[in-house]
Amino acid sequence: xxxxxxxxxxxFTLIELLVVIAIIAILASILLPALNHAREKGxxxxxxxxxxxxxxxxxxxxxxxxxxxxxGRDDPAAANGDTARYSDSWYVKLWPYMKGGSSMPGWVEExxxxxxxxxxFICPSSPEQIYPxxxxxxxxxxxxxxxxxxxxxxxxxxxxxxKMSRCRIPSEAAVMWEILKGNLWDNRGRLSWDSNQNDLFxxxxxxxxxxxxxLMVDGHVETIKGCGLSFEDYVRRYAAxxxxxxxxxxPYWK
Length: 254
Known about the structure:
Layout: H1 14-64, H2 83-86, H3 90-98, H4 108-111, E1 131-132, E2 141-143, E3 145-148, E4 174-178, E5 191-192, H5 197-203, E6 211-216, E7 221-225, H6 231-239
Parallel strand pairs: 3-5
Antiparallel strand pairs: 1-2, 3-4, 4-6, 6-7
Helix pairs in contact: 1-3
């Protein structure tokens, strides 16, 4: 007759436990960057879809306003109490087309309790770059995107007003991109003020794995890597709406 042998449970030694913990830590260090990259990939895709929606909204706006592109003023519109200037902001112009015909909340007292999700102009990748209405963090978040200030009808810009059909390079000229809350763009209008390609390059927010989304005049979206920016690229992509070749002409916008 066979007798069953009793086996005592073998416990982990301290060294074995430390080895297991070390292996888990190594696996986590390998997998977490990949997971973060995949998560950012999803956010980038959501942002591209957002840009495409804005592109469609621009098309509807242009149809309603005799081919003129939407623009924004450089006034601190959402903070100075001037509702006329507030309504002259690009995000106010496009709001009804993004929100299914609903107008943007009229002023801060009406908007302050509506929650941060009310704005249709927020990329999910950089919440710290979102500009709160009137600069007050207690009011709803507005946007972390920026508009090309050259589209505004200033007298010193050639031509003064920008019609979409008059752009000679609609697939290359950008109207909206992702910007930081730096000194150059720290205004309520969220416009991209820049003096040269180096300034602009420093203040674009390369938030999607070192890339930034750009909406072009023709409505398509490009995800552009944050690498060197030549003067020619700068002019065609960013400065085309306001460019002056020195003779009073704009070769990019007739």
